[in-house]
Amino acid sequence: MTRSDFTAGALMLADARRLRADRARQVADVLRRQVLYGEFRGGAALPAEAELVREFGASRNTVREALDLLRAEGLIERCPGVGTLAVAEKYPHGLERLLGLAETLREHGEVANEVRTTGLITPSREVSARLRRPPGEPVVYIERLRRLNGLPLSLDLTYIARDLGEPLLAEDLARNDIFVLLERIAGQPLGLAEVTLEAVSADPHSAATLDAPRGAALLMLERLTHLADGRPVDLEFIRFRGDRIAMSGTLRRTHP
């Protein structure tokens, strides 16, 4: 075999591995949805490998790589003598309505709030500008760990305008969503919220608080909420455990 033949063979092997990896991701994407939202959720058994091979028209190695991807995500377990079982569930968090976490997940269990820090702080210029407050004016800061059915779900860092935030501190923050309390204190409903969603790595503090591996991917939701009259009053930075929450919404294409 010549050197060029060897190089060509190595390239063909690399291409084959890449194509198999691509195909494994495609299979994993379909199975992931079935595990989280479809017929395999809630501890159901997945079909045997041979059946998945037939269904997807893929090789056995490709199917095994796809299952390995889901297992690495903590969604399935492969149990000898039993088969492959769905073991994790992500809770849906819609992005179409402005709701507090307890309102959003009321059908999925009990949301409990551990209030870790509260008080007046002097915010950064960025926070003041977002809340349209004069530089140096104190705002109320609230840090909460949110649990769903006893499991850590999110770490919420919240900045609230002082005139609404100080009365809020006298309320039962452990048992109520801030949105519900804000509307009562303000005497008007909330209006709209500006939302940014991105993935961030878990810093040591967030990882320890959420009982997640350091460096794990978290979903960071930044939300600036306004009253119905347009005034911004609540700026939140919410870190969700990405393995326990799924963001969803319905998008409509508009035409000029």
| CATH fold description of the largest domain | Chorismate lyase
β-strand amount: 25-35%
- CATH architecture heading of the largest domain: 3-Layer(aba) Sandwich
Write down the overall geometry. Answer: elongated
The termini sit apart by: 62 Å
Which homologous superfamily in CATH is the superfamily of the largest domain? Answer: Chorismate lyase-like
CATH class wording of the largest domain: Alpha Beta
Q: Please trace the helix and strand order, writing H or E for each element.
A: HHHEEEHEHEEHHEHEEE
Query: What portion of residues is helical?
Result: 25-40%
Mean pLDDT level: 86
Number of helices: 8
Low-confidence stretches: none
Based on secondary structure, the structural category is alpha+beta
Rg is 24 Å
Say how many strands there are: 10
Instruction: Give the strand order, joined by hyphens, for the main sheet.
Output: 4-5-6-9-8-7
How many distinct domains? Answer: 2
Largest sheet: 6 strands, antiparallel
